[in-house]
Amino acid sequence: MQIEADRVCEQLEYRFGDDLRSVGYYDNGDSEHIYIRDDVKKKYDTSDVEKVFRDARLEAIDREHQESLYIHGDLQCTLRCFKKAIELHLIKDQRKGVIAAIETGAIDDLQGTIESAVVAIEESDS
Length: 126
Hints:
Elements: H1 2-16, E1 20-27, E2 30-36, H2 38-41, H3 46-61, H4 63-69, E3 77-81, E4 85-93, E5 96-103, H5 110-122
Antiparallel strand pairs: 1-2, 1-5, 3-4, 4-5
């Protein structure tokens, strides 16, 4: 998943520059931030980061259930909007995904942002 996360990070850095807060991935038992802005890093300790990845993993496990509730096709991404950041969770499968945070207000084209990130993950399948 690191390759996919690197691609997502490149896409988001290109789109948002300094408004990108962080990008990380989880894959089976591993998880890692590949990018985290310095001011954001100072606010989280290791335990906080582990909790974020744990939450993402639990959400990925529930993907099939979510897809069964809605007749919209595959669940590609979940979005959480906070006062200071928008969190994207790009779900590859039940054990793999990429999480990213962007400053609130920086996303003018939400659909384009999600589509470019999803394409970055799916390119590895080709």
